[in-house]
Amino acid sequence: MKSRSREMGSGKPEKKQKPRQNPKLKGKPLAPNKPSSKSKKTRTKKNKTRQNDTDRIITKNKTTTVTGNNNNNNPPPPAASPSQQLSYFLSQFQSANGVQLSSLELESIKDSCILDVSQELGQDVMRLKKPIKEAFGVKWKEELCEGKLIEGKIEAGSPAVLVVATSALRSIELLRGLRSLTKECHAVKLFSKHMKIDEQVALLKNRVNIASGTPSRIKKLIDIEALGLSRLSVILLDIHTDIKGYSLLTLPQVRDEFWDLYKNYFHPHLSQGDLRICLYGPIPNGNEFKGKSLELADGDREHLDS
Fold first, then answer.
1. DSSP for the chain, written as a single string
2. For 165-206, how does the pLDDT look when each residue is reduced to its tens digit (9 = 90+)?
């Protein structure tokens, strides 16, 4: 306390210490800080990059617009012939199953086994009835419309036409195009969504002319001998692509189930000339489907599981 009072009592002002100066800066006037040349260069580069990105986007949009107009002006590709359709189908079969058909096997499968409806129908399912009727000639009404069982000739649960699609909704949509043929003998829906297998087994104890479903449920019903193949003359394969670009032959899980079904139950009949295939949808050219059948995105897998 005494030392403090002495300091306060003495009227001598305290000495202020001068800040030390760098000897190198003596005599040089102080100036405001200037931005370094590096920061200038960095900002310029960023601005240029943004400008370049904008230019790229504009150029890309211009290119897309021009290309779209050109495509609209071009005529549609020519329809694939039955020979081209058969060649495409068999190449898909060999690729998916890792097999190579021999020349003898290929010779036994004629172009006449293709029921050609491809390009003319487009997406209009209501026009399916005409080519299906024509496939049965003058007996179309007897084979497709009548509803009575005939002992020794028409067995229960053995359709003449089988439609194969990727989903339940698509199966129902395709049946709409054949509705006028199923007034007396109702079509049977062969898929798992909202339908128990016991219900389908009961329906297949009657005469069935037309059935439509998904590969997995169709195969299961054949395995348990509820669905017969003695009358099967035409299988209609829906190869139209969905919104995500997948089809019966490219959607991985469904594709594998279809080829399993075809290899075990349909291919022998095709080789013998007892079965005709209708590829309903455009035949892809070149690499259109390349890579799409390799793996599913997470969203696609969730959609498939549901």
1. -HHHHHHHH--PPPPPPPPP--GGGTTPPP-PPPPPHHHHHHHHHHHHHHHHHHHHHHHHHHHHHHHHHHHHHSPPPPPPPHHHHHHHHHHHHHHHHT----HHHHHHS-GGGB---HHHHTT-GGGSHHHHHHHTGGGHHHHHT----BTTTB-TT--SEEEE-SSHHHHHHHHHTTGGG-SSS--EEE-STT--HHHHHHHTTS--SEEEE-HHHHHHHHHTTSS--TT--EEEEE----TTS--TTTSHHHHHHHHHHIIIIIHHHHHTT--EEEEESPPP-TTTTTTTTT---HHHHHHHH-
2. 999 999 999 999 999 999 999 999 999 988 999 999 999 999
